[in-house]
Amino acid sequence: MAKQSRKIPQESDVSVKEILELIPDTLIDELAESLAVDKWVKKLKGGHIFKLILFSLLSSERISLRIMEDNFEDPLFRILAPALSVDEVRWTGIRDRLINVKSSFFQKLYESVYTRAKELYGGEKLAGYHIKKYDSTMIATFSHLLEGMKVGNTKKGKTQTKITTEFSDDFLIQMEFFKDQEHLSEETALKEVIDAATSDETDIHVFDKGLKSRETFKSFDDDKIKFVTRIHENPRYEMVAPYWKDDGQQDSEDLEFIQDSIVRLYKSGHKIIDQKFRLIQYHLKHPVKGKDKKLSFLTNVWDIEAASVAQIYKSRWDIEVLFRFMKQEMNLTHFVCNEPNAIEVMLYCTMIASMLILIYKKKNNIKSYKKAKIRFFKELVYLIFLDILENPEELKRLKSNLKKYVKRE
């Protein structure tokens, strides 16, 4: 029988053990103490509920309070959280803890992981810039459980909530949760998130046609926020001058260059914005029936060629793939508890778990999101067993927990 080829680890490969160092137990304990997150709490300490959520997200595609209840008794989870003071909790107890636990504890954990991950693994650039992609996704809920946005036909009492997201470096995720009607419009939600984003002169913010206000474009330019977006295929504008001369290098396999010009945009009627922007247009060589045959990009970035602007906008598709991953693999299709504090806690934990997997995926050159998650959890399990085999007391405790688990009624 031929030997099966084995992937040889590269210098850039990162192990689960290294990634988990982003959230050491010392950090969890220090934050829990400084925020008094466990004051008057006998069951489900802040660190335990965090590990329970993380374990549930990593081991399942779709989680619920009852699945979390079952995971609490899992011998593997018991190894991850050895200081548990009780043998079991009910799903109602988990729900109550999610509703009442300080969400600031999970926020601080998330911020620490984000900052450390950016320092250790960040720095990816395109055309010399860090690319930050923005978009929103909707999650259905029920109006009698949670105030939400009314979208379309609301006769059945269904409402939705919005999560507006910034995604950069293939693993850095920031999300804002909205449930008021005003934020149904991307003109409000996206603008608010981009305005609040930490940015510098090396960042380009990329968003789609949902945000199209000419006043917003002007506002971004006034605030020196660099952006790339796509606008209507035939926008109204006043030509100022050609900008980047077509030297035959602007075409690609899919796009045929039309123009790269300095323009002023009309906002309504005969009113025109004073600001000058770059309008870059391409014909699609292979247009899809019913779709635009021309692509119009708008930007206030002046030092890169038109083809790079088109490539930067194309990279925005990464956030669509992220949403698909988080909905299919990370439970971002529903809330385990429709209460604002519980939702906030779950979102912070989901962002942390997702970032861990995405770092693992990127640094180990894994193509599939699903495969990255499966391999991450498997490696975590094997890591647990390796530690146990080297510690007789831990092995004894595992045997005890296994016996309890398999003999339960």
Description:
The two termini are 45 Å apart. It is built from 14 helices and ten strands. Strands 1, 2, 3, 4, 5, 6, 7, 8, 9 and 10 form a ten-stranded mixed sheet that branches. Mean pLDDT is 88; it is low at 1-11. Among the domains are: 16-111 and 337-407, no CATH class; 210-315, no CATH class. A hairpin with a 2-residue loop joins strand 7 and strand 8. By secondary structure, it is of the alpha+beta class. It has helices at residues 16-20, 25-34, 46-59, 65-72, 75-80, 91-100, 103-121, 186-196, 214-222, 306-314, 317-329, 340-363, 369-389, 392-407, and strands at residues 130-142, 158-168, 172-178, 203-207, 227-231, 237-242, 255-268, 271-272, 277-284, 294-299.
Q: Report the sheet-strand fraction.
A: 15-25%
Tell me, rounded to a whole number, the average pLDDT. Answer: 88
SS element count, helices:
14
| Whole-angstrom Rg | 25 Å
- Total strands: the figure is 10
How far apart are the first and last residues' alpha carbons, in Å? Answer: 45 Å
